[in-house]
Amino acid sequence: MSIAERLAQGTSDPNALTLGMLGSFAEIVEEATALAAAPVAPYVAYAFSSELRNGVWTDQHTSTLLDFTAGLRQQHSYLALRETADVLLDDERVLGLVAATLHDALLPEAATISSRPLLAGLQLDIALEVAARTTVAPYRLLALLTAPIRDYPEDFDDPLARAVGFAADVWTTPADRRRFAVTLAELAERGSEDAAYECAVQQLRVALVETNKDELLRGVREARDRFDEVSRQGDGREDAAAFAQACTALIAFDELDKTALSTSAHAARTIADRRALLTRNMHGRHQATARQAAQLAWVSLAWQLDVAAIEIGEDAFLDTWVAVDSIMKVYEADRQFTNLETVTTIIRPRLMNEIAQRQAMAHQLERAINIDKQRVRPELPPEIYELLDLVHRTRAAQRQPSDAPEESSPREPFFLRALLGPSSAVLSELHGTDLARLEEAAEQTFVGSFAGVGPANDMIDRLTASLVQELGENTSFVGMAKSDFSFLVRQTVRFLVYIGDNAQPYTKFISEGETVPLEADIQKHFHQFLSASELAGRVGMEHSNIAGGRADVITTLDGGRRYVTEVKRELKDASRRSLENSYLAQAVEYQSTNEPLGQLLVLDLTDHTSGTPNIRDSIWVTHRRDGAGQAIASAVIAVVRGNRPSPSRMK
């Protein structure tokens, strides 16, 4: 009996398959190519992946895996090919071995495009993902994407258009984009709805990086009209309607239209809710992660639109350039969930408009300080005020923000250069210690929101999505409460990642006789971190009369929804059980008169000379349950690891 026949009997758990369970290795070598074309191909791919992770791997294993991969060009089952690709693409070690072979085997040929256009579309998606994620040369792929349309069957038009749109977010040179635009225009002329949508996306992308304000707005209006047309002509084109609304919001800033701003804020919330709904029952965790990030980007935009509608007559009103920065973030988050038929890709496109970025940073700083001035006791450090004064002085004395920025030098302060742009020459007038002090203040202020220092991987989004999924067990975690609290949770994850990568005075190793850091140290830093994010103006410290007590850091959203982060310090036992037994009741109690969702932030000062726990083990969700076992209150527990020795001190 062949391996395929044994697998077809279904006698083995496909999630526990190993190569040894398939048969002798000699059989596997002999049948590898045929197995790739059979319906059982996904099981074989999983067995190879399992062997690479847990078994004994030799050069002959690699050779056989490559034979199997090359045989996938003969796979005619759409579902079998997709599931096999899921396995191969989801394991980085496997992908590293098969990337070139997989790309070459599945780059669709003319015969497949003509006879099986939908299967050819899937093959194209897989080849495109391989080229985007690895070092495989994309020349043949790009040649296919930009070749004359000729006599392609109609069923191949939309898959090709989606692939070209994705490629335009990955390969961003002007020459590449011009070629992509030609292909999309040809496909749109043939009646491809997806091509018309991708044409509008490309128009928006080009507009958002424009540094001339009039040209930017002209391009955004054209993109809006194109999105509106796609939305009207196609059923269920919520993607087009969403981006049309984003364009409308940006135009409302320029026209100082309070009604349009409020309408756009409501629409942005509705879009965020739809993104959240789309995470349910998704095929893979990558899709859910991407949609979660998109939801939070739309929530952030909604908040800014609401604030702008209120402050439209004030000097600190969110101007057009800052709105551009917000729309760019929505674009980046929303486009990472591609329409490709493979499901492992999360490649977040990056748009850069230095004027918009600089204005957004300055506005964020100004808003935080304006709010701080209104407090009875200001909470921001004096360095933050000095930063804003520096911005005001350079604006008054230097060039207009439309000027091209000077060439960046790696020896110059990174965050101050991003904030000041062409006016960075003023930094040469600062004393070295003052320069270092202000650069540190700028880093603390913008590290949570500045795209230029984001992590290279998707750890923050993945970890946030995992926590959000766990919070879903609480029936109160719905609607606006879900949106609000999810955003707070993501900022908390960002805070943990930042502290893990950048030592703070309260996280350094505590030598014998040294003063032990206080809760107030991390409390103040966490408050500043949140205040420098999109949550500026919504965060306070040590509020009295919250559930009869005094809350450490409180985040208040529209409609009176509030979320307390209780801050503690632990010197003896930072295990999960100990922290929950010691502090959870207090953290949850603060939410007894509001949404039953809160946070506990703990500074762990226990001994770490044997190693520091991974961030995955430093933040989790826990629930308080009723007699029936239902989650009635939930808390995210985040642990910042302090008392961290240098690597040379590790045991």
Give an overview of the whole structure.
This protein has 651 residues and is of the alpha/beta class. It folds into four domains: 1-106, no CATH class; 192-351; 356-453, no CATH class; 467-649, Restriction Endonuclease (3-Layer(aba) Sandwich), CATH 3.40.91. It is 57% helix and 8% strand. The protein has 26 helices and six strands. It has helices spanning 3-8, 19-22, 25-36, 41-54, 59-70, 78-90, 92-106, 110-115, 117-133, 139-145, 157-170, 174-189, 193-208, 213-233, 238-255, 258-277, 285-310, 320-335, 354-373, 382-397, 414-420, 432-446, 459-471, 479-501, 519-531, 576-589, and strands at 539-546, 549-556, 562-570, 597-604, 619-625, 631-641. Strands 1-2-3-4-6-5 form a six-stranded mixed β-sheet, with helices on both faces. A hairpin with a 5-residue loop joins strand 2 (549-556) and strand 3. The longest helix is centred in the middle third of the chain and has 26 residues, at 285-310. It is globular and about 80 Å long. The chain starts with a helix and ends in a 10-residue tail after the last strand. The relative contact order is 0.05. Mean pLDDT is 83; it is low at 399-411, 451-457 and 544-550.
